[in-house]
Every structure is written in C-alpha cells, then in structure tokens.
Inverse folding.
DNA sequence: CCATCTGTAACCATAATATTTACAGAAGAA
DNA sequence: TTCTTCTGTAAATATTATGGTTACAGATGG
C-alpha cells in the first residue's frame, strides 16, 4: 500500500463519535463500523486523545467520546494529529554533494514542495468533522444530488 | 519510509539530463549523482521512456537523453508518469455497509480529497524541469537570496 | 465480585521499495 | 571481427511502514 489509511480511518472514527456525542462508543463497536480490529482503533484513538480530540473511559459502560466541538476540528487538524507527513519525500540517501545538481536539487525542491503542500492544507482546513457528518447524514437520507457536498 | 521517493528521484534525473542535452548520460553516472544503484536508475528511466520523456541508447557511448523540451515538462507530468498516486487513501477493508457512517463516509471523503488533490496539482503544474534547472543553477552559483525561487 | 473496556506489549503478515548480483544483447570503436 | 561499454531485465534479499491478532494487566460501574 502506497499510503497510510490512518487519516481516512481517523476521519471515519471522529465522524462516528460526532454522531454519538451523548454516549461513549467502544473500540469494538467502532471497529465494527470501520471493519478492522479493536486494537487498531484503540491505537489510533490513543493518539487522538494525546492531541486532545477525544477522551476515553475504561471499565463498564466506558468507551470513547469527542472532547472538542466537531465544527472546531478541521481535516488539517486531524491530518497533523495522525502524523500524516508530507505527500513528498526526498532521497533515501543524500545526493552526491560533488555534483552541482546533486548538491542543490533538494534546496530547489523544498520550495516547490512547500508551496504544493500549503495549497493542499488550505483545502483541508476548509472542511470540519461537523461538515463531514452533515455530508454523511445527507447521503444516508439519499439527498445527494451534487457531486461534492 | 512513508512515501515513495520516485517522484523526487525522477525530478533529480530529469534536471540532470536537462543540464546535459548535447550528450547522453549513463545510468552509472546518474546513479553517482543520485547516490543509488544504476539498476534503480534504469528501471525509473525505463518508465520515463515509456511515457516519452527520455530515450536510451545501448552500447558504447550510449546512455540516456531528454526527448521533450525541459520547459514543456511540468512537475505534474512527471508525477503522473511515475505513478505517484493520491496523497490520500481509503480504508484497506471496505467499511461496514450496515452502519450509516460506514456506508457513506467514503462518498463524503471522495469530494474533499478530490478538491485537495486538484489544489496540489494546480501548484505542481506551475513548475517545469527548466525552472528546476534554473533554480539549481542559481543555487550552484550562490545566487539564492530568496527562500522560494 | 463480575462483566466490560481501556492500555499496551508482542508477534506475525503483507506490501511497497530499495539494493544488489548477474547476465543477455545491442552498438560504437579499434 | 573483436572488445568494451551500456542497456534491459530477472531474481533474490533487505528494509520499512502498516495493519491484524492474541494476550493480559488494570480500571470501573453495577
């Protein structure tokens, strides 16, 4: 797999939690929706708890709940929280410093990559978990007539 | 490593070839600049030849050369040529269709992801191999005073 | 107490990539 | 023609990221 699915799964889970703010959801229930293992869910939610998005309650009637307001959580916040890095990556081994191109290519690329990444992030900051939930709910009611809601 | 370095290495190689349009460069020479194995270079260049960016010449005095004009090659062209996919990826296993969120989350995400990807590509299309070469050359001459040239 | 859940470690499986060796064949040069 | 230089590829191995699974200690409410 080329990329991590953590971002997608995190959005899925946060949307699920946003749809059930009154009572906590267990990692097993969440895993049932995501179609994965409860431990995978707990690992990811543990990360999101560290970043202050959710809280957990052990023991009977425990589970996970949203802490922050779903329309105060942007997709960019989530992306950063799950450590989804840049869509670009430099050479594994440093290029040859004796070659003029090798010595300067990374510096040249850093600027371009940075610009592209900022454009990406500018889009992600436009959407919140709340918007995502509304979109999912509208689809569940069959109210989607436009491609991008 | 989170992501493939193919895109970066492809840009490095194409910039190198753009700096030596008169005579072909061998995979061994190129590998020396990139600091990797000649076979890795040949595999990647084989892909770029299929897409019409470069040509190869076997035998004595052979090597690789640019076919297209370096300012007619955008970073987006290269990105697509090396099969660098979307920076986002959906669930590994399909979410639970019995869950309203599970059933609709992918549809909701497709729109957002598409928008973000288009923003990214709109940036990549602004830069060409020629621009990259100029940027590298300016750096080689110590003429870089601005962060993003 | 007991059933329910989190928190985490440990281990295995999988997939994408990169690295390396090896060698057949093409092609210019002597 | 023969030699040397390169490409074109296959094959085997190593590395890394990720995901899936089992196991179990500890917390907690009923």
């Amino acid at each position: 797999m080329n990329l991590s699915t953590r971002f997608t799964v995190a959005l899925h889970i946060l949307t699920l939690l946003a749809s059930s703010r009154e009572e906590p959801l267990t990692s097993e229930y969440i895993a049932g929706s995501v179609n994965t293992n409860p431990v995978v869910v707990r690992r990811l939610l543990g990360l999101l708890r560290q970043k202050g998005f959710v809280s957990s309650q052990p023991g009977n009637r425990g589970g996970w709940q949203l802490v922050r307001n779903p329309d105060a959580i942007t997709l960019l916040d989530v992306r950063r929280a799950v450590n989804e890095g840049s869509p670009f990556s430099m050479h594994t081994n440093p290029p040859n410093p004796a070659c003029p191109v090798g010595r300067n290519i990374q510096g040249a690329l850093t600027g371009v990559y940075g610009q592209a990444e900022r454009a990406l992030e500018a889009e992600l900051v436009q959407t919140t978990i709340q918007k995502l939930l509304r979109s999912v709910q509208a689809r569940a009611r069959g109210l989607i007539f436009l491609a991008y809601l």
About this structure: Residues 1-2, 26-28, 38-39, 42-43, 45-46, 56-64, 92 of chain A lie near DNA strand C (CB under 10 Å from a C1'). Chain A has six helices and two strands.
